[in-house]
Amino acid sequence: xxxxxxxxxxxxxxxxxxxxxxAITGKANIAKWLDGVTAKLKGWRVxxxxxxxxxxxxxxDWASEWATTAQTVQPPDGKAAFTTHGxxxxxLHRGSDGKWKIREEAWNSAE
Length: 111
Hints:
Elements: H1 3-8, E1 10-17, E2 24-25, H2 27-40, E3 45-59, E4 62-74, E5 82-94, E6 100-109
Parallel strand pairs: 1-6
Antiparallel strand pairs: 1-2, 3-4, 4-5, 5-6
């Protein structure tokens, strides 16, 4: 839940496609959304995060990959931890600095 570290991975013009929400475009807008989410999750902790990436494709300065994910979280107030599963698709772009950044992201729950 380190929002600053997460946002380093994003392209300035990135777009996230979240389940049940309108697209969010632009690094600043994605950061604002993410800060809002973590503000609502005070006391929650991610105990374990696993992602297995599949079908990595690279074409010039563009790449795509999809992943299966599992995240175990601990709610506050001593409630039992639980694990959620999902899928994610990433489109990456290599900038003029040679670094790969997330340009587009889509994910959903497998539950």
